[in-house]
Amino acid sequence: MKSRYSIFSLARNAINYHKDWERAWRSPTPKSEYDAVIVGAGGHGLATAYYLAKTHKLTNIAVVEKGWLGGGNTGRNTTIIRSNYLQDPSIAIYELARSLYEDLSRDLNFNVMFSPRGVMMLCQTEHEFRAFKRTAHANRLAGLDCRMITPEEVKKIAPIINDDPNCRYPILGAYYQPRGGTGRHDAVAWGYARGADSLGVDIIQNCEVLSIRRDGGKVAGLETSKGFIKTKKIGVVTAGNVSTVVQTAGLRLPIESLCLQALVSEPIKPVLDCVIMANTVHGYLSQSDKGELVVGGGTDPYNNYSQRGSFPALEHTVTALVETFPIISRLRMLRMWGGIVDMTGDRSPIIGKTDIDGLYVNCGWGTGGFKSIPGSGYVFADTIFNDRPHPIAEPFGLNRFVEGRLIDESVAAAVAH
Amino acid sequence: MLIVHCHVCGAEGDETDFHYGGQAHIARPATRDPASVSDAEQRDYLFMRHNPKGLHFERWRCDRGCGKWFHAARDTVTMEFKATYGISELPPRALMEAATGEWAIFFKDKLAKGSEA
């Protein structure tokens, strides 16, 4: 067991000039066999391993990662956490995740900087106003703390907003989730990694999965760049690269990989203390603790594995936000980046078993991955351990595409896809 | 920024002058005999997509030019357009042979038969 982070450990290490901090996780060489192996050490994979070890006491497990942990979409998002989706199954899983975030820092003994600063989804057309009102009713029926607010309240919460009623997309109101907000994305990966590692999970970085080896209808193990690893259970959590990984086992998925970009501005004084999504104009905005404005928008339209997006998508996002937030027009943008997101046809994730015994997938989170990390890991760990879908994960099974039982969030999701 | 060439009118423009139409060569199973289409086949038609890391075959539309649809072969890692070809055509033989994974399986019998779509 690792020593706990606390004010006392900080003081103790300060005396030693911070030279003796214990490593947060080991770098083990892979064993020849594990009870289960998770492919992909992003937030979802690490959370899955953590809950497998913590809740289900399955500790002879490994997480294998092609690059470094948290280096994919977990470190490339805009850190927004909210759960105000339209469909019941989505509300259940995203709210499970959001509620776990509330207590995550204490659970992991790692400050994930969850900041429930409020998420506001602007209504800028009559149609959008009605659609969000519908979502608001659905969410309140499910017990979420959410409400519609007036343009005056919007202006009070976010004074930098353009409240001119004669602009092209005037503010007609907003859908507000006061307990939504942001978190520190790297810390979520690091916290889960440290937590899983201290429970005995081997996190093996720089270990690329070359193929999944099958023994008839069930999995036999993984061929990796560090040799063969025997296992009976494999959980694939590799976001944009999921199709290429499961293809080696002969499995096809209803997924396309697209590039989603984000960017941050130079740091400025505090101007915005909530997250604002403006879906009609395709952009969203929040301010980080360092003062940078964090900007995100829609995906690039075409298939992409390069983690580099195209300029028109960024230009579209920024152009849109400048009208809604005129003060940002002179801001210089410091950094931009892209992540490869795995999009399904109904824009909802796929969690559960596959036709191959012992092969489980957790993918298709698309543009909504970060906010769902704790909930996704929690239900996926339960699904792998018990070899049946967790009740909250059940609607997200692969068979929904055969049955036509879609969980349609493509128009309901707050972010323009 | 992608620079796209229209196969039909020859116009050159950036990606905002064109519209991406997703995966190419998807045949609607219900066109021939609707009654015999299984749920799984319908799922494949509606939702299953080739998602290769590398050479991909897709549809584009010349939005601000001639308005016609055409096919393109593009690499999803380097973003390089390898070829464009007509909407009712199959890709050049060399590209069909270069295809990997699901595309290689798809083109296998087409390569044996000839070049009709």
Which short descriptors sum up this protein?
heterodimer; A: 417 residues; alpha/beta; FAD/NAD(P)-binding domain; D-Amino Acid Oxidase, Chain A, domain 2; 2 domains; eight-stranded mixed β-sheet; six-stranded mixed β-sheet; 11 helices; B: 117 residues; alpha+beta; Folate-binding fold; four-stranded antiparallel β-sheet; two-stranded antiparallel sheet; 3 helices; globular
Written overview of the protein:
The complex is a heterodimer of chains A (417) and B (117). Helix content of chain A is 28%, strand content 25%. Chain A is of the alpha/beta class. Chain A folds into two domains: 32-110 and 184-254 and 350-403, 3-Layer(bba) Sandwich (FAD/NAD(P)-binding domain); 119-182 and 257-344, D-Amino Acid Oxidase, Chain A, domain 2 (2-Layer Sandwich), CATH 3.30.9. Chain A is globular and about 65 Å long. The N and C termini of chain A lie far apart (43 Å). A four-stranded antiparallel β-sheet of chain B has the order 3-4-5-6, with no helix packed on it. Chain B has a two-stranded antiparallel sheet with strand order 1-2. The longest helix of chain B is centred in the last third of the chain and has 13 residues, at 101-113. The mean pLDDT of chain B is 93. Classes of the chains: A alpha/beta (417), B alpha+beta (117). The A-B interface holds A 241, 243-244, 247, 252-257, 301-306, 310-312, 344-345, 401-404 and B 1-2, 14-16, 19-20, 22-23, 39-40, 43, 46-49, 51-54, 56, 58, 74, 76-79, 101-102.
